[in-house]
Design brief:
alpha+beta, 39% helix, 3-stranded antiparallel beta sheet, globular, disordered N terminus
Length: 247
């Protein structure tokens, strides 16, 4: 357990500290809205997020968790929470948007609770995340540990546009699920300007969550307004099942 959490806290904090000093295009409220379609599953107990206590480097550390898929919750329960002294406590996983999760954790910390937040990525995205980050030339120390502990947002490069069937507004699709975004790109029909023109099909880019949020907070690019993270099909299915069970 010590080997898992200690490096994670160090990597997460150092990676998110990079922030260009220029005027952001999106307001904090707009950034919050962008994070509202990223679904996480977090342990809940008695109507509030539940933290678990661990001993890290000889010190007690309280941790809230956000799992990015149902498979991630299974890994969290079996491999991590099982090693906590609170492992026998009753809890259940509740789906929340990432922005709502942040808001709930802030409310708990405002009560005086001292705890860190640890993300549990979708295990199904780890292999492709490593491949893409290497192809993109990212220089990350201990990349296996980084990928195991940092969720990835997948976005098209160059961008493509999708249309919301309800509002009819176009947007740039991203996803927490590689196959979900790749299938959207594969369905796009590209028109050649001239018969001899070469068409460069967009590729999927892997963007660590901290870098994605940092970009939302600092980018001056106009198309940042059009980014939308599509929930993964597995998360939507899990939420629908939970809703049906409550009826």
């Amino acid at each position: 357990m010590i080997n898992f959490i200690a490096p994670l806290l160090a990597i997460s904090s150092s990676y998110s500290s990079i922030a260009p000093t220029h005027v952001a295009l999106l307001t904090p409220k707009q950034v919050e809205e962008k994070l509202d379609t990223i679904i996480v599953f977090t342990p809940f107990s008695k109507g509030v997020p539940k933290y678990f206590s661990f001993e890290v480097d000889g010190k007690k550390k309280n941790i809230y968790f956000a799992a990015f898929s149902v498979k991630a919750t299974n890994y969290l329960s079996e491999k991590i929470i099982s090693t906590s002294k609170d492992s026998k406590d009753k809890y259940s996983y509740t789906p929340k948007s990432l922005s709502m999760f942040y808001s709930l954790i802030k409310s708990e910390k405002d009560k005086g609770i001292k705890a860190d937040v640890v993300y549990i990525p979708d295990p199904d995205q780890k292999v492709i995340s490593k491949i893409l980050l290497k192809e993109q030339g990212e220089k990350i120390n201990n990349i296996d540990n980084f990928i195991a502990n940092n969720p990835i947002i997948f976005c098209p490069n160059p961008v493509i546009n999708a249309t919301d069937q309800n509002s009819k507004k176009s947007f740039i699709p991203c996803s927490t699920d590689y196959k979900n975004l790749k299938s959207m790109i594969d369905r796009v029909k590209f028109k050649k300007k001239f018969p001899w023109s070469k068409v460069n099909k967009p590729k999927v880019m892997a963007i660590p969550l901290a870098q994605f949020i940092n970009t939302l907070n600092t980018s001056e690019q106009e198309n940042i307004k059009n980014l939308r993270v599509i929930p993964s099909p597995s998360s939507i299915e899990a939420i629908n099942q939970m809703n049906n069970q409550q009826k």
